[in-house]
Amino acid sequence: MPAALTVLMNAGPWLPVPPPDYGGIENVVATLVPELRARGHRVILATVGRSDLAADEVISVFPDPQFGSIAGPYNQMMGIAHAHMGAVLDRLRAGGVDLVHDHLEVVGPAVLAAAGDAVPPVLQTLHWDLAKHPDFYSRFDGRGRVFFAGVSASQLSRAHPTLRRQSLGAIPLATPLPAEPPRPPAGHLLALGRLTPVKGYDLAVRAARRLGLELVLAGPVAGFAGPDTLDRSSTLDDVRYFSTEIEPHLGGDVRWIGSVGGPAKAELLRSARAVLFPLRWDEPGGTAVVEALSAGVPVVAMRRGCLPELIEHGVTGWLADTEDEFADYLTRIDELDRAACRAVAERRFTPAAMATRYETFYRHVLHLAGRRNPLIAPHLPQVAAG
């Protein structure tokens, strides 16, 4: 691999990079791009016009983020991702790109694989639950040019064998480390993320109410940023979930503030006693977990998905196997050492560590694509990512 590459980083058309508040994928891109550029790589960012992340070149079709349309009827929003990919293909045809690092679910690899040798080799990071699109992933063939990286070993273990054979391994997510060291907490617990059934925050609000604990819910509901914008007449599943399972428990020390970002989010996080993840699904990546540890804040979570890979039980957090156990651990948060949480993040989850791992994967993708290895081969060598 040359010392410096030109990488087209496809963040998709949904949210700006960095996002103002919610946006896991866009936060990952915003963390990775500066590190790659600092190492001498040239980065072309495919995003929306409102993005303000520094890049060597920016491609956008939509001036504004399209996330508000993502939950709409398919026949009304299906063209958004494809219009974005049309601009990506136009830029790739102009040449000068060594590799595409794609983050656009399904549409990205489908379009780039169909383009064949007309586009450079591709690495797609899989940020989502791989059970979502079984018909696509069980049949997809990157033909020795499109490869995948998971965000956790747990995620890849549940992938269809066809997808696993085309995956190089897993790279844990990362987040910039706050400049300030961990500090003593304020009184609140924090739930940081979308309010949706699989996140299980109804368990958290019930437990907090029963135990008399202060809990702040910071995240959107079905794309609605906060209480002032929530359309309670909406028939979207997440709105119904919020109205029936979350809202009845709000009041007093249990409150929903909506999406929060920037300095306000940093302050809310650093001052939290713990961040809660009462998951009902197998979380693939855990961006918010890494954010918590980087701020020196311990985690209380269900033992699901990637959480056992990120949390050392009894050191950086508590991992529960039942709802009752989860509630019990909320009374043991002060046994955990905030300095230990920060030390783990400094060792495992820094932007530099993630960039180093991706450079290794980029090198391997270019090597495999150069050899044109048929993916019908029984094994694709796994690259150790740490």
Structure, described:
This protein has 386 residues and is of the alpha/beta class. The chain has 2 domains: 6-174 and 351-371, 3-Layer(aba) Sandwich (Rossmann fold), CATH 3.40.50.2000; 188-348, Rossmann fold (3-Layer(aba) Sandwich). 36% of the residues lie in helices and 15% in strands. The protein has helices spanning 24-38, 74-93, 107-115, 134-137, 153-157, 161-164, 201-211, 237-246, 262-270, 287-294, 307-310, 323-329, 338-348, 351-371; strands at 6-10, 42-47, 57-60, 99-102, 122-125, 146-150, 167-170, 188-192, 214-218, 254-256, 274-277, 299-302, 317-320. Strands 3-2-1-4-5-6-7 form a 7-stranded parallel sheet, with helices on both faces. Strand 5 (122-125), helix 4 and strand 6 (146-150) form a beta-alpha-beta unit. Helix 1 crosses helix 14 (351-371) and helix 10 (287-294) packs across helix 13. The longest helix has 21 residues, at 351-371. It is globular.
